[in-house]
Amino acid sequence: MKITILPNHVIIPEDRETLMEALIRHHLPVQNICNGKGTCGKCKVRMLGYVSPPTDSDKKHLNKIELQAGLRLACTVKPEEGMVIELNFVESQDRKVSALLEMKTTTLNPGIEKVFIQSSKPTLEDERGDWDRVVDVLSTVTGRSYDKTGLYILGKIPDILRADNFSLTATVTEDKILEIESGNTTNRLYGVAVDVGTTSVAVALIDLNQGNILKVVSTENEQTAYGADVISRISFAMESQESAMALRVAIRRTINHLLEELSVQTNVGKDEILKMTIVGNTTMHHLLLGLDASHLAVSPFVAVCNKPLEFSAMELGLELNAQARILLLPNIGSFVGGDTIGAIVGAPAVLEPGNHLLIDLGTNCELFLKTGHSMLACSTAAGPAFEGAGIAHGMRAKQGAIESVTISEEGVSYQVIGEQEPIGICGSGLIEAIDEMRQSGVINKQGKIVDPEKAETLAIGLKERIRPAEKGREFVLAYGSDQGQDITLSQKDIGELQLAKGAVCAGIKTLVEMAGITVSELDSVTLSGTFATYLKAINILNIGLVPDIAEYKIKTVGNAAHVGAILALLDHKEMAMATELYKKISHVELGGSSTFSNYFMDSMYLERLN
């Protein structure tokens, strides 16, 4: 039995295997939040040609328009001969992309350059070897010596040197020749900055001659097929060497897919990319490199390596120039990785005099606190709710996602990304919706949806939107069209958000207390992450995501971790600063902290928290 996965994959399912299981076994991208139980509704695929009849799970999670368009849940599909499946892999334009394209470059010093040289031709009087001849000229032009080389360059020199009358372009670092090309190609030098998130991955293509961001593409981390958070992925990796390899292959394949997408959408060949910087939390760092992550999850929570690392693209199996420099920003601790260092580099105001808190919001939330006498960092397991995962109608911030909500006695109004019919709700919409539900009386401070028959002061139009659900009640944010599906928030959804925001708030209180200051003494609270860019200070204060402080102190800086990766790509001095930073920051482990546990219970309430 063969199934075609567009554009060009053919898979052979095993007996009694669901489509979901077959996709995971063949390392193809599919969301697997509920581990194939049919309860999350996230593993949507589109069937072309023959479309299997919808199951009860399909009918529950997909609206009539989606069902008619051939969408099904992969975990419910029984493979049949000749099926054609579309996975809709790369999202080339979403919030993560838009936020970065607005970035402006100030310093350009990437530590890598192209140098054009014209060599003399060999004669009987000048029998120097091709390599010696090139190095002599190059050293004269740059004032640096290049004594070391490898078989890659030596094997190419004879043909490259003679292809254009003994002229060539060398791509060099301070002491090494990375690549040689015939003729003058000095105007084409490119690099990529990669943000490896737990839920999604983004790659920015940058002209290293001009400092311009040419294109950014983003997609879901293929590792989500093996778990939604870092703990579940560490657990999976510990099952066997094959499991660990599957995770390593998944993230490398995700990055390679995005590199291919960049090549297709621009005129830049993958072999023209000579430098890459990578940020990610410590677990993503280890899984990418294929390092043992088992000790990250047990006390004393030790990483294999925290130092900054450098590899060649060939070593990591990444599909750009084989000799490209791959730089990974340093980790701080077990769950505070290079993404936090990147965020600090990308938002340098947090290092200014005073007390400054940086919150990098995502599936794994990192906190960095700088005071006059210390720098502390910790991680809280916020979970995937901020990314839309674990929420019945949650989704990433892309076309069709509700991003803003207003509730009044007249009803509910909302804004949708792309100004189309809503198909779900993203993180910013979720937070604003829950704040609005609390302010309007739809839920109380404990997060419980009120009984409409007992809520005497609640407007009739809002009472009508409250209805029984599978567990507890749900509130209708948007009614579907004749064939569409209602977008709702259930009691379970609200609980997921409370857990996430409670962990963040408790982490802030714990870190501030350990630093010997109070929340009121903070001079600024900077929210980092693409999701955070679209949050409103009033909403995050009202629901208690951040302890109650003056609203003007709260700032957003976009995806600072990715910005930091870009700055480190563009200026080698930024990488040097990152190296110094990680040595100075003390890592705080919140696991087992009674202080954190006590604050966590109080932080679950949906109200301004002191």
Key structural traits:
610 residues, 6-stranded mixed sheet, Ubiquitin-like (UB roll), iron-sulfur cluster binding, DUF4445 domain-containing protein, Corrinoid_activation_enz, Nucleotidyltransferase, domain 5, 5 domains, 19 helices, alpha/beta, ATPase_NBD, RACo_linker
Strand percentage: 15-25%
CATH architecture title of the largest domain = 2-Layer Sandwich
Category by helix and strand content: alpha/beta
- Which fold name corresponds to the CATH topology of the largest domain? Nucleotidyltransferase, domain 5
CATH domain class of the largest domain: Alpha Beta
Poorly predicted segments? none
Helix content: 25-40%
CA-based shape:
globular
As a whole number of angstroms, the C-alpha radius of gyration is 26 Å
Number of helices: 19
Strands across the major sheet, in which order?
11-10-9-12-14-13
Let me know the largest β-sheet: 6 strands, mixed
Q: How many structural units, i.e. domains?
A: 5
Distance N to C terminus: 61 Å
CATH superfamily of the largest domain: ATPase, nucleotide binding domain
Look at the structure and give the mean pLDDT.
Answer: 91
Number of strands: 26
Describe, in plain words, how this protein is organized in 3D:
- This protein has 610 residues and is α/β, with parallel strands linked by helices.
- The chain has five domains: 3-86, Ubiquitin-like (UB roll) (Roll); 113-182, Ubiquitin-like (UB roll); 190-328, Domain of unknown function (DUF4445) (Nucleotidyltransferase, domain 5, 2-Layer Sandwich), CATH 3.30.420; 353-384 and 497-604, ATPase, nucleotide binding domain (Nucleotidyltransferase, domain 5); 387-495, no CATH class.
- The chain is built from 19 helices and 26 strands.
- Strands 11-10-9-12-14-13 form a six-stranded mixed beta sheet, sandwiched between helices. A six-stranded mixed beta sheet has the order 25-24-15-16-17-26, with helices on both faces.
- A hairpin with a 4-residue loop joins strand 21 and strand 22 (473-478).
- The N and C termini lie far apart (61 Å).
